UniProtKB/TrEMBL annotation:
Keywords: Cell membrane, Membrane, Symport, Transmembrane, Transmembrane helix, Transport. This is Major facilitator superfamily (MFS) profile domain-containing protein. Its main location: membrane. GO terms for cellular component: basolateral plasma membrane. Coiled coil: none annotated. It is a multi-pass membrane protein. It comes from the Eukaryota. The keyword Transport applies. The chain crosses the membrane at residues 20-38, 90-108, 114-135, 147-166, 178-197, 232-257, 269-291, 298-316, 322-344, 356-376, 388-409.
Length: 464
């Protein structure tokens, strides 16, 4: 195969915003679909696993929990691998891991082996695909990046609507072992998506400079300097609080309907409604976020999406019939799609291309802790109160709190500091004598990159 090309986003390479970028977008769409829909689609086989291994429902539910924990918790590991070997090799290995885990799980003789294979190995494989695909999407799109993020995020509801019925077809025909084997074969498509992630070519050096060879600067495997960025800190805190309650309503809405004495098929249809609305909400939100007036204020649109989602949860707590739950699922699908389309777009705008590979890994690690706490904590509250109203109230309060943290933190801590630095720079420029009008090219380059005295200055166009 030759030498591995480390696609670390070389400086001076302009994002094509099209061309091969559409193939990268398609690969990211498929990867996002597998990563988020696969843990939920696994629940189709839980009853068969309970009969086979004589375990309880809570034991089988750990499979999906381990998958999600691996997807979020291995973020720093993925960042190190991408910074060391590049996106394409990491994704190819990840696709093999994801497929191998499901194939090995089809030969499992106890539930622990299913945890290790379908949970740990497949979860690690999906993680090694999900994060690099977002990094490549960030490098191939700049002007059209909000739209690209919205279209890629739509893979989650599309694949959920496809994988769940597929599992229901495979389970009676081939059993859970045959179903796992076929799903393992489908996951090999992650390798195809990885092959689409072609690194961007660095700019060609002039003929005069080709004779002098310079050693490239050593790249950090995990850049912790992002924690010095107050915008990144505020985003991480807000996202961690949001994840505590974001995934709770989809987990409990079907049980909520069953508790209101509605039949199983009618209750399960609520998730179908939610997913169908979600499919259209994500790309539409991506289009809106790309408008010239909206994009510089994208962080506030993200904050509004979280506020909308939390308010929907609070109103959903007062639903006492099936019609009320349908209305809740419609509005939740809209707000959930907005959050899904904007969460990584805002992070890309905060940290930029160079630090995004490290930033997303650290953010996903923080969110992993919240994912493990959120739904189980809501379940304990339900066991204590036996009322779904309190579960939805808790989830709504957590998501609303996260929106307030993001909006207030951006308005008070980030934008004010940026304006102060700009005013000081302007005063300094006005006080300069005319003879100092000539500026060194290196200083101009540092100004364009947003650096001052070695410190990164926040870009006012992104607000955060």
């Amino acid at each position: 195969m030759g030498a591995v090309v480390v696609d670390d986003g070389p400086a001076g390479v302009k994002a094509p915003d099209g061309g091969w970028g559409w193939a990268v977008l398609f690969g990211c769409f498929v990867i996002t679909g597998f990563s988020y829909a696969f843990p939920k689609a696994m629940s189709v086989f839980f009853k068969e696993l309970i009969r086979e291994f004589h375990v309880g429902y809570s034991d089988t539910a750990w499979i999906s929990s381990i998958l999600l924990a691996m997807l979020y918790g291995t973020g720093p590991l993925c960042s190190v691998c991408v910074n060391r070997w590049g996106c394409r090799p990491v994704m190819l290995v990840g696709g093999l891991f994801a497929s191998l885990g499901m194939i090995l799980a089809s030969f499992a003789t106890n539930i622990i082996q299913v945890y290790l294979t379908a949970g740990v190995i497949t979860g690690l494989g999906l993680a090694l695909n999900f994060q690099p695909s977002l990094i490549m999407l960030n490098r191939y799109f700049n002007v059209r990046r909000p739209l690209a993020n919205g279209l890629a995020a739509a893979g989650s509801p599309v694949f959920l609507c496809a994988l769940s019925p597929l599992g229901q077809i495979l389970q009676p025909l081939y059993g859970w072992r045959g179903g796992f084997l076929i799903l393992g074969g489908l996951l090999l498509n992650c390798c195809v998506c990885g092959a689409l992630m072609r690194p961007l070519d660095p700019p060609k050096k002039p003929a005069a400079s080709q004779g002098t060879s310079e050693k490239p600067p050593k790249k950090k495997l995990l850049d912790f300097s992002v924690f010095r960025d107050r915008g990144f800190l505020i985003y991480t805190i807000a996202a961690s609080i949001m994840v505590l309650g974001l995934f709770v309503p989809p987990v409990f809405v079907v049980s909520y309907a069953k508790d209101l004495k509605y039949e199983d098929t009618k209750s399960a249809a609520l998730l179908t409604i939610l997913g169908f609305i979600d499919i259209f909400a994500r790309p539409i939100c991506g289009i809106v976020a790309g408008f010239k007036w909206v994009r510089p204020r994208c962080v506030y649109l993200f904050s509004f999406a979280m506020l909308f989602n939390g308010f929907t949860d609070l109103m959903g707590s007062m639903a006492y019939n099936y019609g009320g739950l349908v209305v809740f699922c419609i509005f939740f699908g809209i707000s959930y799609g907005m959050v899904g389309a904007l969460q990584f777009e805002v992070l890309m705008a905060i940290v930029g291309t160079q630090k995004f590979s490290s930033a997303i890994g650290l953010v996903l690690l923080m969110e992993a802790l919240a994912v493990l706490i959120g739904p189980p904590g809501a379940g304990k509250l339900l066991d204590a109160t036996h009322k779904y109203m309190y579960v939805f109230l808790l989830a709504g309060t957590e998501v609303v709190t996260s929106s307030v943290v993001l909006a207030v933190g951006n308005a008070c801590c980030i934008k004010k500091a940026t304006q102060t630095k700009e005013d000081a720079a302007e005063r300094e420029g006005l006080n300069k004598p005319p003879g100092d009008a000539k500026v060194d090219s290196i200083e101009v380059e540092h100004f364009l990159k947003g650096e001052k005295n070695g410190e990164v200055v926040t870009n006012p166009e992104t607000c955060v």
